[in-house]
Each structure stands twice: as C-alpha cells, then as structure tokens.
Specification:
This protein has about 350 residues and is α/β, with parallel strands linked by helices. The protein folds into 2 domains: about 170 residues, 3-Layer(aba) Sandwich (Rossmann fold), CATH 3.40.50; about 180 residues, Dehydroquinate synthase-like, alpha domain (Up-down Bundle), CATH 1.20.1090. Strands 1-2-9-6-5-3-4 form a 7-stranded mixed sheet, with helices on both faces. Strands 7-8 form a two-stranded antiparallel ribbon. It has a two-stranded antiparallel sheet with strand order 10-11. It starts with a strand and ends with a helix. Bound molecules: nicotinamide-adenine-dinucleotide (NAD) and zinc ion.
C-alpha cells in the first residue's frame, strides 16, 4: 500500500492507494464524521456501495444515487443533493463522500464546498481518470448549458482513498481514458516515469495490479507536487493541460459523445508534441516515443478530420485563451513543458493538417 501526501499547509491531506481499501475505510478515515452523506451514481453504487456501507456500519450513512452521465454534473443535480441534505437534517458537522468517477467527484465536491459554507469532503475515486487526476488537487465544478465546469470552486478533500479493485469493473474505453492522463505526467514532469511506462505498457494495458499501483502512485505524487507549488493555476499547474486545448476542441466538435476525454487528450497530446517537434522544442526521436507509447496503449494518435477554421473556433472558446491569444502547453523534450502563445499561424496550420 502507498500513501501520497499533498502539502497545502493546514489543508494538507493524504491519498491512500491499495487494493481492498473499501473494506478498510474505518481505519483509513479515523476522523470521519458520524453523519456521512455518500454521493454516487447508479452504476458505481451497484458495485461498491455495499462495501462502503459495511465498512462504516457505525456511522449514519445516507446515499444519494444520481443517474450516470456527464449531463448530470448539473445545477439540477446540485439542487437535488442539497435538498436531500437539508431534508435528512445534515448539519455543518457532516461529511460528504464522493464514490464514483470524475463526474460524481466534481459535483459532490462542489456541494461540499458550498453546503453550510463548506463541510468535510472525502473522495473515493473509482475510475482510473479520477484516481490519477480529478480526485486530487481540489478543483470542483458543475456544468452550465453554456459550457463545461463554468461553476465551481477550489475545495480540497480531507483525504482520498483509492481502491485498485474498483478498476476491475471499469470498461476498456474508460480505462484507457485514464492511461492518457498518466502518459501526460511522464511527458510534462518525469522522463524516468515515461521510460518506466514504455517498459510497462503491456502490463498496464492488461491492468496488472503492481503496474497499476506504481503508475497511480507516481501520477498522484506528480499531481500533488504540482498542486503544492501552484494550487490555483497561476503557473506550473497549467502544464497539466497538455493536450487539452486540442482535446477539448475534439470533444466539442464531436459533441461530447463519440470520443472519451482521454482519447481526445491522447490525440491532443500528439498534436502538441508535433508542434514541439516542428518548433525544435522536442527531438524527432522523442516525438516518436510519445507516438509509440500512445499506440501501445491503444489510444488514438490521429485527430478527426476538421477544417482549420473549426479548430480555431473551438480553441478560441477554451478557458485558457487570454487576450484573444491561445496559450499552448508544449512539451520541452520529455520531462518538462512550457506555456507559450509564441506559435506562428503557419506552424499551427501545418501541424493540424498533418495530425488529422
Ligand atoms: N476536478 C478535476 O481536476 C478534473 C480533472 C479531470 C477531469 N475532471 C472531470 O471528470 C469527469 C470525467 O471523469 P471520468 O472519466 O471518471 O468519468 P465518469 O465519472 O463519467 O465515469 C466514466 C464511466 O465509468 C463509470 N464508472 C465509474 N467507476 C466505475 C467502476 N469502478 N466500474 C464500472 N464503471 C464505473 C461511470 O458510471 C461512468 O459511466 C469530467 O466531468 C471532467 O470534467 C475533473
Ligand atoms: Zn484531462
């Protein structure tokens, strides 16, 4: 078992990572309130709520089971959860536990940030993406019809509990979606980890426990390190958006259905790396390593066919646009990145044409 510390002064917390952790919640969360409100969805609750409930038998547990899907990360769900908290008499001293993927975690976290101006919040992420990314770092949000994550808050959990066994029921596409974010950590922050991923791609794709344990732990350590340096994304935290400006354009252009987030990020990471290669930020051999690793993990390396005008119009809507300039996160070789708007229209057009 592993323990990753997120250092944020008095808001510091631990990420506990191992198999069989659901059964050990009582030991892992000694300060958990007696009044626990669990937010989950129909898919995840069916598999895992019984374990949580058995482990916390001496707490009062109320379950809010939402429908499954990104469209439920909404104001309507926020209101329904708050109504239930009030109806069930939950006070300032309660705890809210998110049991599910990033959708459940983002929504439950935003409720926790606002209910009674903030109650204790715990994450039990059950998708690979939520285990290595969304449950760590304190970004919480709901969507608005005008855009994703438009309403939210920075609100750190008291602890994150990762149970590797939860990944056994995850379908292949959602599993691979998480792998794309893991590759991202290697590219932006840790060339040794990238090298390890190259050597363990098959074990990871086959969900071998030891490989997963290491990949999740190293990803959480890197995210914890970055968040500790820049909690509110005024600098280095933006590196975590590698591939996301292009990825979000792909997701939007395909109406958030055809491509998973991770698939879009994988193709977006290839585009960003190609742009780095073209502008001498990355060698051709390093570019090929990125390309090979993504293909080994069966992630897409080609974006869908879109016109340059489409790309630009979707990318200009991205939250990262400042003063009408697109800020690109570009790898500097493998193991480092930078944010820059210094890219010529010609280079951008050439790379987008090549990668579609
Ligand atoms: N807060 C952040 O920093 C951050 C970072 C990245 C992404 N996000 C958000 O995370 C969300 C995406 O998260 P996601 O990819 O986890 O999607 P998700 O929560 O929709 O989960 C994907 C699917 O897997 C199912 N599922 C979850 N756990 C399962 C399990 N153990 N077994 C079987 N099925 C399971 C879910 O019901 C769902 O159908 C997006 O809303 C995105 O905006 C937030
Ligand atoms: Zn992402």
């Amino acid at each position: 078992m592993a323990n990753v510390h997120v250092e944020l002064g008095e808001r510091s917390y631990h990420i506990h990572i191992a198999a069989n952790h659901l059964q050990q919640l009582k030991r892992l969360l000694p300060n958990l309130s007696k009044d626990v409100f669990v937010v989950s969805n129909t898919t995840v609750a069916k598999h895992y709520f019984a374990d949580v409930s058995a482990a916390l038998a001496d707490h009062r547990l109320v379950l809010f089971e939402m429908d499954d899907g990104e469209q439920y990360k909404s104001l309507a769900s926020f209101e329904a959860i708050t109504n239930k908290l009030i109806a069930e008499g939950f006070s300032r001293d309660c705890a809210i536990v998110a049991l599910g993927g990033g959708v459940v975690g983002d929504l439950a976290g935003f409720v926790a940030a606002t209910y009674h101006r903030g109650v204790d919040f715990y994450q039990i992420p059950t998708t690979l993406l939520s285990q290595v990314d969304s449950s760590v770092g304190g970004k919480t949000a709901i969507n608005h019809p005008q855009g994703k994550n438009l309403i939210g808050a920075f609100y750190q959990p008291k602890a994150v509990v990762i149970d590797l066994n939860c990944l056994t029921t995850l379908d292949d596409r959602d599993f691979r979606s998480g792998l794309a974010e893991i590759v991202k950590y290697g590219i932006i922050y840790d060339s040794d980890f990238f090298h390890w991923l190259e050597h363990n791609a098959i074990a990871l794709a086959q969900r071998e426990t030891q490989a997963l344990q290491h990949a999740i732990q190293r990803s959480c350590e890197i995210k914890a390190d970055i968040v500790a340096k820049d909690e509110r994304e005024s600098g280095i935290r933006a590196w975590l958006n590698l591939g996301h400006t292009f990825g979000h354009a792909i997701e939007a252009a395909t109406e958030y259905g055809e491509w998973t987030h991770g698939e879009a990020v994988a193709a977006g990471t290839i585009i960003a790396s190609k742009l780095s290669e073209k502008t001498q930020r990355m060698s051709s051999s390093d570019f090929r390593r990125v390309l090979n690793l993504m293909s080994q993990l069966q992630l897409p390396t080609q974006a869908p066919n879109m016109t340059l005008a489409d790309w630009l119009s979707y990318m200009m809507r991205d939250k990262k646009v400042k003063d009408h300039r697109i800020n690109f996160v570009l790898p500097l070789g493998i193991g480092q990145a930078e944010v820059t708007h210094n890219i010529t229209d010609e280079d951008l057009a050439a790379v987008l044409t090549e990668c579609c």
